[in-house]
Amino acid sequence: MPVSCAAYGCTNMYQVEYNISFFRFPVSNNDLMSKWVSAIKRKNFKLSQWSRICSIHFTEQDFQVRPEAHRLLLKDDAVPSIFPSFPSYLQKSNKIPRKTPTLRNTCNEDITVDNLEDNINQCDNMNLSSNFKSMEVQTETSYSNEEMFKNKIKILQQILRRKNKKIENLDDLVKSLKND
């Protein structure tokens, strides 16, 4: 029976001239075996005595360091994690670490249409002063609150513009009626 890789989309087969090793599934460790089976993303996969995973699917940290050894040996907890033949949405992305949170200014006033311009001026003045509220950690809640307030300000600005436009139109109507 030729030895080939069981990972989805992998066509590697054992050949003497290539430096690719093949590893059996860890049948004796059920937890680890289930991790391997879920990692290879094969629908209705049936494990057999001939099922193997090639060394391409393991990171360097998954192998034991054995100087002057000719054969690769996996660590006991190694799980295949590299699958170049997977579609991009199934591949793990290299996550970029987040930057540390910075100091942000906040406007704690309740915003209404009547005092919208005053609130905008207050928030602008806060930028000039050094009156910052320190946020130790930016959580989903604080971020969503910030977005909610920005949206609320935007909507109230739109309402104010519409009301001003109505006032202008009414003024024009009154002027035109006076002239007639």
What does this structure look like?
The chain is mainly alpha-helical and 180 residues long. 36% of the residues lie in helices and 3% in strands. A two-stranded antiparallel sheet has the order 1-2. The chain is rod-shaped. The N and C termini lie far apart (101 Å). The relative contact order is 0.10.
Spatial shape: rod-shaped
Largest sheet: 2 strands, antiparallel
Relative helix content:
25-40%
Number of strands: 2
- Termini gap: 101 Å
| Class based on secondary structure composition and strand pairing | mainly alpha
Radius of gyration: 32 Å
Q: Give the DSSP E fraction (strand runs of 2 or more residues).
A: under 5%
| Quaternary assembly | single chain
Give the strand line-up of the largest sheet. 1-2
**Low-confidence segments:** 127-135
Mean pLDDT: 77
Number of helices: 3
SSE order, one letter for each helix or strand: EHEHH
Give a nutshell description of this structure:
With 180 residues, the chain is mainly alpha-helical.
List the helices and strands and how they pair.
Blueprint: E1 22-24, H1 30-40, E2 52-54, H2 116-128, H3 140-179
Protein name: THAP domain-containing protein 1-like
Keywords: Coiled coil, DNA-binding, Metal-binding, Zinc, Zinc-finger
GO molecular function, one term: zinc ion binding
List keywords for this structure.
3 helices; rod-shaped; single chain; 180 residues
